[in-house]
Automatic annotation (TrEMBL):
It comes from Pedionomus torquatus. GO terms for biological process: negative regulation of transcription elongation by RNA polymerase II. It comes from the Eukaryota. InterPro entries: COBRA1 (IPR010405). The gene is Nelfb. One of its GO terms (cellular component) is NELF complex. This is NELFB factor. Residues 517-545 are annotated as: Disordered. It holds the Pfam family COBRA1. PANTHER family: NEGATIVE ELONGATION FACTOR B, NEGATIVE ELONGATION FACTOR COMPLEX MEMBER B.
Amino acid sequence: WQTENGVLLPSLQSALPFLDLHGTPRLEFHQSVFDELREKLLERVSAIALEGKVEERYKKLEDLLEKSFSLVKMPSIQPVVMCVMKHLPKVPEKKLKLVMADKDLYKACAVEVKRQIWQDNQALFGDEVSPLLKQYILEKENILFSNDISVLHNFFSPSPKTRRQGEVVQKLTQMIGKNVKLYDMVLQFLRTLFLRTRNVHYCTLRAELLMSLHDLEISEICTVDPCHKFTWCLDACIREKFVDNKRARELQGFLDGVKKGQEQVLGDLSMILCDPFAINTLALSTIRHLQDLVGQDTLPRESPDLLLLLRMLSLGQGAWDMIDSQVFKEPKMEAELITKFLPMLMSFVVDDHMFNVDQKLPSEEKGPIPYPSTIPEAFTKFLQENRIACEIGLYYILHITKLRNKNAFLRLLPALVETFSDLAFSDIFLHLLTGNLTLLGDEFALEEFCTSLFDGFFLTACSRKENVHRHVLRLLLHLHHKVAPAKLESLQKALEPTKQSGEAVKELYNQLTEKLELRKPSPAEATETPSMELPLPTVPTPASR
């Protein structure tokens, strides 16, 4: 039996006793020969998949699969069967069903085979994708609530290319491969989840996924996605954090080029523009344009570039409504936004310039002119009723905070208590605001500043919005040493978690309490410390000996 089933090499028979002398079992020898042969077979399968005419090579592989598939559950043969299936562009339906029905086989097969299973099994594909989407949202929220508060490294700091290297985007890109059907399924999942949760991070993933496939030059998908060129152009703007004139004209060309009967593409374009990274770029560009217009004595309605930015902001902000209602047309822009609200913002910029100039003039008998403290009622109304105005207004407030303009900040802060959809209490705005407030660190020692910021703004929403509670605690963890002790004590009481508070709030509050405990002087130090100056004995120097 051994002779019949052994390796039939005449020269081997005389050599085998040497292995016996070395105490090497025959099993070990046969196992190593088997492994070697398997490696050779795997290499040959990969080579067959690339050589000869297409029909011939696949015919060979199909025959090989037919012969070997019955052994697919044998661990030693399984890699060969899986390798053959991996190289077949279309595995027979019957075999796919058998793989799908067996959990272990499904787990062991290559992603190329899984793609063939997924494209006809949306539910199974959804089960694979769902944990990745959850992980993605969690990663974004962890960045927004990170304890590292910095004006230099914030949520929007990583470049688009860096973000696309993230684990989730890379895994999804690999799962999709060049399969348009799977790509469409993922987009459908993202649209559905965006509708269900209103979470804008799904819009970011929509854009990142398309650009990740673009980086890999997967033309099979990029050429059929009508948003590809628009997203590519916008991606370059996001990288620069500014929409320049050349790119603005390109983007406008895409929007104007949406033909009758193809309006549905507006739903996808609006989702791309709803990505917080796109909104951030458009809003920053809008503020920059407004400042330029002040210098040029030009009104907003006379700037086509500014009007295009507003058009894209409006399309992005209207994404949810458009996809929900399935009415694919651009939202109508309110004339008052351009004729009243933006000039009002420009007047704030002028107020700052006038105040700064006045400070430099020699003071006359009438004394210095105080900084304007009131805000027009219309400004507050716009922030409450108009989404685009609210977004631009919030970015203007971030802008003045970054410039350390305390007067302008305190003047406009009361308008943030009530805003459209509570945008002033959204995580992205609070993440950026807390970062910019670190530049005003020294102002936290002043009672008036803290009262306006905490009592007048943050604490108005802490009890009803847990995310605000978290952001305030993040800020205090970073700046507690700057706040006046009496104010800090009252804030500590006001921010104490309730029974309903989540774990994250309790954890942050405990961290803050620990930090404050460490700063408190110990009772021994608090009492008058005795003088430490003891008379030192005179030590003769070497020279005086």
